[in-house]
Each structure stands twice: as structure tokens, then as C-alpha cells.
Amino acid sequence: MEKRVMTDSKRRRGLTVASALLGGVLVLSACSGGGDNANGDEGGDGTSQAKVDEAAAEKTSEAQIKITPKDGSTNASINNSAAVTVTKGTLTDVKMTTSDGTAVSGEISADKKTWKPSVQLERATTYKLTATAKDAEGRAAHENASFTTVSPANSFIGTFTPDDGTTVGVGMPVSITFDKAITNKAAVQKGITVSTTSGQEVACHWFNANRMDCRPEEYWKEGSTVTLKLALDGVEGASGVYGVQQKTVTFKIGRNQVSYVDAKTKQMKVTQDGKTIRTIPISAGAPENKTYEGQMVISEKFKETRMNGATVGFTDDDGKGEYDIKDVPHAMRLTTSGTFIHGNYWGSPSVFGNVNTSHGCVGLQDKKGANDPNMPGAWFYEHTLIGDVVVVQNTGDKTVAPDNGLNGWNMDWAQWKAGSAV
């Protein structure tokens, strides 16, 4: 009896342990995988995980869009920064705007792989780009970026002469004036090339931190073409100051005309290809206001202009200009400081060829109103190009400074080349 009770007790304990173990298995099974399949081979809807991943991959475009400069960039170039490219796909839409929403025109390439703006960007401006591309399966990819171009404070530009497409005289140098002082002159000069179809060697000379002129040893060959290339985009001209220009300029050299003013004989010989085509009586600077000597290049032409002595230091006791002529005819600038060769209607005709009476300019007989083509002043004006040379001799004054106007020809070749930074 006692033995049977003990046996039944053991049997009940065995059943209880078995139930507990079975329950544990069920609990463990219920907690693993979260579904009917404890190994995770199927999703809740019966789809395998591999198939889910494959479906997600199929929905993602393979097209890879790249926008430059990268999002958030500052001091970006106004020439080469903005660009969109795509691999494993083709561009379908690109939009570029300024921060205020103004659209910037641009073009997608024929193969639909690249996009660039069709206009130069502005400095100190924030631009936004949005791009869409499709892969071979037609699946779309999108990319966005925003960047800010270099500010005027952190960039420099060079104002150059002569202008693109012009025809100039044989004495016309390439002259570049920078709006910031250049301390890395070699780097900037390496970004500028000047070449000529005549094959003449061209050298550049720095007059100061803001100006560089370029010329050959002798005057340009008539009929040649000169090319100026500015590759200054991104060039560091000074600490934290970068170039933004990327430009090619070409100009042509006209006939070889050089005019010789002799203050002693008071005559000017106009020559072309070394032959005198006309001799014109002149009146140069008076003994107390001598005209500079030297080779001078005509840099500007005005059919009529005002000349006020006060602007060049000729004033009376009251501080007013010793002269103020509001309609000087046929004026052509020779120096920055105010030397001109120009028509003169107020002087007696007997002055020209006989007496030097001016404040330093070279005067030619002319008529008020600049409308008489038979006057020497009018003839010379009509037969002159920007860049023609006027050589002034026998005045008794000093030679004009090479940087006073476009007059670097008054420096010999060795001195000129010594002013190069490279």
C-alpha cells in the first residue's frame, strides 16, 4: 500500500516535469522569430525575407547623380563650379535657382550625362540645384545641393585692354589692372598667356602689385593676331583671395603707323611702314610747360572732350583752372597724367609750326565743333587707331614714365623682362 502510493507520487512528479518542459518548449518556440517559422525563412505574409530584400532593391534606381560643388560649399567658382553628372543612367531634369528663386539657364548634354549652366554665375550668390535621373529600367533618382559663390572680398578680377575683337595700332600692349593687390605674382602670371601669330616673343612686366603689361621687344607686326588667355579661376592671388576669370581675348594689329613730333621744328611726320604720308604743323608745350619726350601710345580717342587745367594741377591764384575748354576737338590721350594730342581752334593759325604754346599737350589746327574734315586735327583723328605710337622729341623735358599710360616702350627689353615674376 505504502509502496503503491510512492509509485503514484513519482508518476505525478514525472508528468509535471514533462508538462513543464513541454510548456517551456512552446514558450521558447513562441518567442523566437515572431512568426510561424522559428528560423525566419518567411515573412508574416508567407514571403521569404530574401524576396522582400530583392523587391526593395528592384525599386531603387541604379542612377548615380553627382552635383558639384558639394552641398554647403562656399567660395565656389563662378565659372566651373556648377555641374551635374550621372552614371548608370541619364538626366531627365535639372533646375538651378538663386536663393530668391530666380532661374538660371542651363543645358543637358546630348548624351544626357551632364548638365552645366549656360551663363556665368554671379559672385557672392547662393545657388540651389535639383536633379533627376533615370536608370535603364526607368527608375528615378534625385539629388539636391546648395552652394555659395566666392565673394568680391575673397576674389580678384583683372580689367584688361585692348578689348576682344578690336583692331589696334602696333604699339598697343596688353595691360591688366587688378582690383586687389597681387602678392602671389608668379601664380597669377602663370595663369595669363599672351601669344601672337607673328611668332614674336612676348614678356610681361609688373609695374606694381595691381598692374601687369605684356608686349614684345619691338612693336607688334602689322596684320598679326594677338591672343590673351586668362585662366585665373581659382588661382590664389593673395592670401584668401582667388581669381574668377576664365576668358580668351583676341585682337588684331592694324597697319604700322608711327608719328614723330619734333618740338624743335614744330612739325609732326606721320609714317606708315616707315614712309612719311603727311607732315603736320604742331604746337607743343611752352618752355615753362614742356611736353614729355618718349614713345607714347594713344590709349583713348574723343571727338570732343572737356579739358580743365585744375584737374592736372594748372590753377590760378583763386584755385581755378588756368584753362577750362569744354569742347576740345579730336582729342587723343597719350598719358594717364593728362598729355593729349588734340585739335586746337582757339589758337591763331600762325602758332602751328612756329611757336610752342601749350600746357604740355601737342596741338593741331582745328575748327570748333570738330566737323571740318579738312583740318589737320580732324585728319589725324580719322587716320589714327587706339594703339598707334606718337614719338615726341626735342622738348627738353624728361622721358615719360613707362607706367604713365601705355608707355612701356620707354623701357629697354632687359629692364622689361626683369619685371617678370616667372
Automatic annotation (TrEMBL):
Name recorded for this polypeptide: Ig-like domain-containing protein
Keyword Signal in annotation: yes
The organism's place on the tree of life at top rank: Bacteria
UniProt keyword terms in alphabetical order: Acyltransferase, Cell shape, Cell wall biogenesis/degradation, Peptidoglycan synthesis, Signal, Transferase
Occurrences of domain L,D-TPase catalytic (ranges): 257-393
UniProt-listed InterPro entries: Big_10, LD-transpeptidase, LD_TPept_cat_dom, Transpep_catalytic_dom
Pfam (any one): Big_10
Pathway membership: Cell wall biogenesis; peptidoglycan biosynthesis
Signal peptide extent: 1-30
SUPFAM superfamilies documented for this protein: L,D-transpeptidase catalytic domain-like (SSF141523)
PANTHER family assigned: L,D-TRANSPEPTIDASE (PTHR30582), L,D-TRANSPEPTIDASE YCIB-RELATED (PTHR30582:SF2)
Active site residues per record: 342 (proton donor/acceptor), 361 (nucleophile)
